[in-house]
Amino acid sequence: MSRGLFLTVEGVEGAGKTTQVGRIARRLRALGRDVLVVREPGGTPLAEQARKLVLDPALELEPAAELFLMLVARADLMHHVIRPALEAGTAVIADRFDLSTHAYQIGGRGLSESDVVAANRLATGGLAPDLVVVLDVPPEVGRARHAAAGKPKDRMELADEGFHRRVAEAFRAATGPGILHLPADQPPEDVHVKLWTELSRRFPAIFPQDAG
Ligand code: T5A
Theoretical Cys-Cys bridge with 71: which of 123, 138, 144, 167, CB 3.0 to 4.6 Å? Predict the structure, then answer.
């Protein structure tokens, strides 16, 4: 059996990642496909504990401590969940993955790129997504969506304006053959239609354009 597709969805807070991941997964399941959705940080008992700590507004964390909590979560999720699912031929869709580490810990916190890349490689064992989708919205749009949803702010969301500007800039600047930027400043259904169209151009056997 061939390895499953590994898709990650990235962007600033409130970009609509969870919404779009849910729609894609529902549509794939309706087509009879095996799909696993994970969110980062999180997804295993250990990773959920790390998530609680790293998002706790009552804690003050050094940038390196923040990085290691993200990576302990990733290493555990990768070993116990993502890699076995991909090897079983299941498509895995991750709500955030290592582009978030680039944006937040390198772009936002200013940690050394080469150190973070090396540490991340230890956590992933070198397994990289087949496609990284970046949902592009201005950070103020994401914040307004959060405010409208009435969600309490976590430790990352409480960081200062400059931090969030640097994170947004790092997402904007991310390029490469495996990275797809999608304007996401439109209603969820419109974003979904554009995203599915892009996915079906790249992986027509998995995302048929005429179905669902
Ligand atoms: N982090 C994570 C790091 O620093 N380093 C790392 O390596 C990793 C992996 C995780 C935090 O950890 C940081 C980044 C984060 O700060 P999180 O809660 O998992 O935190 O991430 P958030 O981005 O905060 O997750 P959200 O679920 O809040 O945002 P989403 O998923 O982008 O947005 P979504 O889909 O939940 O939508 C938010 C609201 O907007 C509405 C939704 O209904 C919802 O109310 N919405 C739209 N409204 C209008 N138009 C659209 N197109 C909309 N799409 C969604």
Answer: 123
